[in-house]
Design brief:
heterodimer, A: Rossmann fold, seven-stranded mixed sheet, 34 helices, B: alpha+beta, 37% strand
Chain lengths: 739, 76
Amino acid sequence: MAAAAASSARPSSAVPASVSPVSERRHVVAVIGNPNTGKTTLFNALTGLTQHTGNYPGVTVESAVGEFTVEGTHFLAVDLPGTYSLAPRAPDEMIAVKVLLGLGEGVQAPDVVLCVLDATNLDRNLYLLTQVLEIGRPVVVALTMSDLAHKLGIIIDIAELEKRLGVSVVPVQANKRIGLPALRQALNKAARAPHHFRSLIGFPTAFTHEVDTLAQSFPQTNGHSPLPRFLIERLLIDAGGSIEAELTQQWGAGIRAQTEAARARLAEAGVPVPQVEVDSRYHWITQLVETTIRQPLTTAQTWTDRIDQVVTHKVWGLAVFLVTMAITFQTIFSWAVPVMDGIDALFKAVGTRVGDLLSEGPLRSLVVDGLIGGVGAVIVFVPQIAILFGLIALLEDSGYMARAAFLMDRVMASFGLSGRSFIPLLSSFACAVPGIMSTRSIDNRRDRIATILIAPLMSCSARLPVYVLLISAFIPARTVWGIVGLQGLTLFAMYLIGLTLAPPIAFVLKRTILHGEPVPFLLELPPFKVPAWRVVLFRMYDRSWAFLRRAGTIILATTVLVWALSYYPNQNRVTEEFQARRATASAEERAHLDSEEAGARLRESFLGQAGRLIEPIVQPLGWDWKIGMATLASFPAREVIIAALGTIYNLGSDQKEGSVELRGAMQAERWPDGRPVYTPVVALSLMVFFALCCQCGATLATIKRETGSWGYAVFTFTYMTGLAYLGALAVYQIGSRLV
Amino acid sequence: MERTLADLQPNEAGRIRCIAGTDGLSQRLAELGFTLGQTVRVVRFAPLGDPMQIHIRGFNIALRRTEARRIVLDPL
């Protein structure tokens, strides 16, 4: 918020839209509202499939962006995060204020602000509106939930409300497409209106006087303060808020001293901040509501109350919760599998067909293993993402999600998170990619990042084949303590490792790199309703497409890179050697030569060389260079280790975790001195490494996408690799001394 | 001893006398409608004892006990 940028943004924002030719200009609509007002549903209905995740012009934070046209005029709509007030206390709340005021380099102030109000909850929703009006941009109000308000006996005099607020108020039912044309018309009309600073609230004179004085303390340009009055008011009201921090940084500590003195004077005069703002606004709102809204005096027991008695009950509530979570988990964990196997088979078949058309050589290998394999590696995530987000949309739109967070908050709070982190973490047991994507419902950014950083520790379904292969080959099928199978116990232990380490890690993160002012846990429990299928379907489509577009390219690039590392540099020599051997081989030998050639190629590749290079590092874990190399090869996607081991042991890459051949080859593997390479302890050390390591390019790409920075992706990769190494080291060093 | 919102039993109500503190939390609570003189009612506690469901101004919101303790009440 540089002074120059702020003052240069003002003249342009003061120019009425009619100055430039309207038909050529694109109007910007900023959409703002409380959480749970149906804002996103309305946004989707307004913009339809033009919607995508993008940046607001000049602001580097992702938000939903979409377009629509009214009578030939083009509109760009931007969905701002749901908020109860415009008193910023965190960077992402500051963004909304900057966008609305058009502050900062290249930030275009919106031509019109669409403020979404919940008709069943007008008191609290009007609070935000009174602040938005003071920004001084043209405003249109969309009144959602008016059907529900009608059912509750709430009667709103819309004409009177419009008169008192001085803006258009349009009742809408977005999921039924009711009121949308009227809303578009109102936006189109308002966007052309001249705008001016407007306050409906009568603040005490002592307060307005202090705002005037504080405005004078900034260097004046042409007799005017360089900052909008709204900012000065916020500076005065929000002690310890983002605006105080930014203005102090920019204009010096003198500003803070003057602000604090002004606050002290106000407290002495009996109008302390922040109370004076809240009281003045709610006083005005109460008067407005008295004349425009008729509410039934006694509130009868609603359906929501009756459902809540069950779903938040000490016994029934927990039972409903467990069943809901079990179904959610089962759906993404097992029901997505046939579709995923189908996708896998399809891409293998396409690869084989295309491979037959190309001649042997680097091009064929690149197309089949690199490109087609890479695209398959991206698309295989879509079923889980679509299913999980369909379920989440159902849970959220019905109102149950807030109850789930209410039930689980106590557990999550004990390690510094909130109930909202539960579903993302549970989903991560199936796959961290949709799990991380679902953290968007966590409103507190620091909680959200902490959840993202620990989500990959949950043992995902891609780790299961690795556990199955190693357990079936090296953990004796014995029974311990009379009833428990040792193999099953080992599998359970693998799931437990991440689960036990995640809470202390979240705890430490919240106290170190994610430290900050504690944010209150304010969880609204909205009325239950029947979910709208449009909302559910759109969510499934939108999330899957977002994943394909943004994470997909990174995953594809990594797959091609690993292909190159495992193919080059020595392919010519290997090809020649095997051509010579094929010429002299018998028919039976020839059948095995393809697998042997692939093995030789991999051992000679950059990856093979790297495997030998890191052998001293992996030896303390009990691994030989082949295990080290297979682990390296599986960094982009951990399940690749099975194909990699298959190739290394000359069995070909077409191996499954249940393969008897692969199991046999691993059991037969020996060190040069004749000791077996794989012992139960080595198998455990390898499994612990896989349980803790973030060997998943898709997860890292998703972390980058969701946090907006590579920093958190690099951090996750580093801490998890470190943890995995130490864990495997401890298992081998301690285990090999015990056995 | 001042009686706070955290001290109420389910289905007990009170009138807000003041909100303790001048930090971000007290401001957030006030913005949500926890204003002086407003009636608040505890609906229930979560099965594990925390957070608690509060009814105010016609809507339901969950607060943790540590937050509810900020809200000082007068009897109705």
